[in-house]
Amino acid sequence: MTLDRFRPLADRALGPFVSAARMTGLSPNGVSVIAFLLAVAAGGVYGVATRDPLLYLLGAVLVFANGWLDLVDGALARELDVASSGGDLLDHVLDRYADIAIIVGLAAGIDRWALGIAAVTGVLMTSYLGTQAQAVGLDRVYGGVLGRADRLALVGVVTGIAAFVQAQPAGLSLVGWLLVVFALVGHLTAVQRFYHSMRALD
């Protein structure tokens, strides 16, 4: 299900955005910081979106922008030939804080903290297993049922729908069910990545 397999296709569409970033003098790290701030803004919007469901639509736009800029920063670093371990570390740290901000905002908005904790731990363990594989000498792992690109796409689509549809199947809002998916599938993805990494180390 992972969207990361389409990364080469996305890379080809990044040209105009990379050019725009170069024209404005933005560095790859600057793009990473902007992407992070958009995620924080999305989390803040989600936290109050139940007051006006149309705010979910704004949150969806901010999440999609965060995801797109998360691709732009790497492409810009390669274009400028300034890719570095420090930039990679900054990008990953900001991505994790971005994930936390978005999920905490979603959980706060519907007052479902237990679901939020389950979801955020699933997301963080998925990301941890992806990079820990690299730390033990394997290639970085992007696969599994639910990678970061998939998560951002789901957040954007589901919250965009939630702006217009306030259905509560089985007594849980669409956002609540999204957190359930992140909790269950996030931990499943982490286990998948762990399993494949252990097999590769044998």
The rounded distance between the terminal residues' Cα atoms is 26 Å
Radius of gyration: 17 Å
What is the average of the pLDDT values?
A: 89
Low-confidence segments, given as residue ranges, are: none
Output the number of helix runs.
Answer: 8
**Beta-strand percent range:** under 5%
Biggest sheet architecture:
none
Helical content (DSSP H or I, runs of 4+): over 70%
Q: What is the N-to-C order of secondary-structure elements (H for helix, E for strand)?
A: HHHHHHHH
Please tally the β strands and state the result. Answer: 0
SSE class? mainly alpha
Shape: globular
Structure explained in plain terms:
This protein is mostly helical. Helix content is 77%, strand content 0%. The chain has 8 helices and no strands. It has helices at 7-13, 15-23, 28-48, 55-80, 85-110, 113-135, 148-162, 174-201. Helix 6 (113-135) packs parallel to helix 8 (174-201). The model has no long low-confidence stretch (mean pLDDT 89).
Question: What order do the helices and strands come in, and which of them pair?
Answer:
Elements: H1 7-13, H2 15-23, H3 28-48, H4 55-80, H5 85-110, H6 113-135, H7 148-162, H8 174-201
What keywords describe this structure?
single chain, 202 residues, mainly alpha, 8 helices, 0% strand
Please summarize what this structure is:
By secondary structure, the chain is mainly alpha-helical. The chain contains eight helices and no strands.
